[in-house]
Amino acid sequence: MNLRTSLPLVLLTTLCVLVSVSAAETSDGAERAAIQKVVEDFAGGADARDVDRIGRSLHAESRQYLPTSGGLRVFDREQYLGLISAGKIGGQQRKMTVRWVEVIEGYLATVGVELRGGGMVFLHHFGLMKVDDTWQILSILTLAGREE
Known about the structure:
Nuclear Transport Factor 2, Chain: A; 6 strands; six-stranded mixed sheet; alpha+beta; globular; 3 helices
């Protein structure tokens, strides 16, 4: 094979690889946006005490873990929604900063989020899973503290 006949083949192969990489990046970007939307629904729903919005973001078996000085507190989905509905938590407008979004194998994800407002800082580590083409929050590890 000489250069004249192999050059088109090399160019075509390179083009195919570039198109594949570009499609993968676009897909990954769309997944990240969908994941971030679920986290925004959770946080925004808590700020507005919108139980339906939060409920859509949480998997039926989700758990939230909150280490406190008195030990670990664990809330299942219904307990958390009950606290929101009763006005015991939530209702504060907070500024959300996404620290990272990592997609794992296309159906799992982790998201790091910082929420600030009302004199408090919340650091959330979300674990999500894609169920029937919909991202849902499975677990939330929350560290809470006073703003300095």
